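Course assignment 3, question 2. Fill in each field.
Student: A.L.
Task: Predict the tertiary structure for the chain below.
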Amino acid sequence: MELELKMADVGRYRLRYLDVGSGTPVVLIHGLAGDYTAWLPQIEVLRRTHRVIAFDNRGAGQSTQVDEPISTADLAADTLGLMDILKVDRAHVVGRSMGGAVAQHMALMAPDRIATLTLCASFARLDPLGRRVLLNMREALEWRMSWADHARHSVQNFVSADFFNKQPERVAAIEKLIGGETRLPACYSRQNEACQTHDTLDRLGEITQPTLIMAGANDPICSLTATAMMTNGFPNARTEIFDNASHFFLMEQHEKFMRLLTEWLNGHEM
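Answer field:
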């Protein structure tokens, strides 16, 4: 799959993005780790039926990296700004982990521009376990200043015990991917802090768009406690739990995830 990547100036920042396919727009927002490539399996499928926009958040991938305070609301404004540049008036928004937190702010800032939300392994407010896990991962990076060491200390948080024990080659590939990061560690730390402080829980009732919540039953970062907060807070939400899967359930149970996502998008055509 050959993809043409471009750069867009959004405010003071340059964002690397991909814009492929045609039809109803779908905006994909990656999480704290990685960049737009986290969505490659989904892009390959969705581009056949939708216009798919994926990008590197500010502070990740090939987008502008600056050591400065940042919030999930800032990233939401970036995403809406990119939609402006690409002349996308309204879109389905799919976010994983931190990307789902960003998507919530987009719906609060510009509700008329968001058709549906799909929140994958995400949160409106982290629970104490999620906060501790994120803090531990950030401290591992800051203490060692090595992405490879960070990956070795973090990878077990992303997959279920069953996956970790039975698929060592795939676990090693995930660890290598995380360990090959080139972003500024400070940008990761700033966005890690943004996740820690993200809190839209008391405003979820304002988000009336159809919302699909998907979560891994064994996820320590965005636990079933955090998932239940969203399920109970959104007025128009459906929740799907992936048993025996964790934060990377999109990878652990790819076929189930793609079936649910495509059915959801096709069932909510604009």
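Instructor remarks: The first helix runs from residue 40 to 46. The chain has a mean pLDDT of 97.
Grade: pending
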